[in-house]
Amino acid sequence: MRLRLPHFVALLTTLLVFTACSGGQRLRYSSAEEAYEKGMVEFKDEDYDTAIKFFRGVFQYGRGNEFAEDAQFRIAESYEKQRRYLLAAAEYNRFAKLYTASQRVPIAEFRRANMYFKSSPMYQLDQSDSRKAIEFYQLFIERYPQHELVATAQEHIVELRGKLAHKKFEAAELYQRRKMYEAAAKTYESLFDKYPETDWADDALYGAVRSYVDYADNSVRAKQDERYQAAVDNYERLTQLFPESNKTKEAQSHYRKAREALDRLRKEEEAADSIAESDSTDNR
């Protein structure tokens, strides 16, 4: 049976309405504009689930229609309002990729990072979202260095890096408590090298001084020299970079112990060398 054009259009409209009715709630619209306007009514009424359904209905008329860009952005905002931050991040990301010419792309990219920032948990937990937030904030700053939100992005990066440093510090402290001194010392050093601008930097250097002294104390004679020296080196970095830190004063006793141990070891080496030289002379 052949359908005339008017009949075909009427049938297509009916199918679109039927599709929107699925999911247990009847959502009626016959155009992209109507779907979007009804979505905005629900959005303003804070019924975000229904709003999202209407906004998605806009795409049944194609991703290129005049309401599609706004609908995509509103979907992301709806998830954000619901605090479903990872879904919001995905929708902001979709917006930035689909509507590259839009003036809202910078905002979408900032908010993508912001969603991961809001998802970032306490420092004790997995920090994957913190790392993603940092990555996306840095990308935003690189792409839009003059944007008014760059300062906010930088502040959030500082906060997130502090959280990552805190987590690493607690890992080092755990190694120290378990008397795993090598792991503790290397973790403290890694913390300082990776997060030198954070509030944990002086704590890390102090921890490295203490752990290297403990590590050397429990090492074989042949390895003690280099490990006490590592304690001394970290103490010197601490005093140079953080002369006013309380950790500098706390580290002094560990530093003195390392210096005294080094002096003793080197005197023992000199004595041993002198004896060896004397024996060699006597045997000639």
TrEMBL record:
Residues 246-269 have a biased composition (Basic and acidic residues). SUPFAM superfamilies: TPR-like. Residues 31-212 form the Outer membrane lipoprotein BamD-like domain. PROSITE patterns: PROKAR_LIPOPROTEIN. Transmembrane segments: none annotated. Residues 246-284 are annotated as: Disordered. Keywords: Cell outer membrane, Membrane, Signal. This is Outer membrane protein assembly factor BamD.
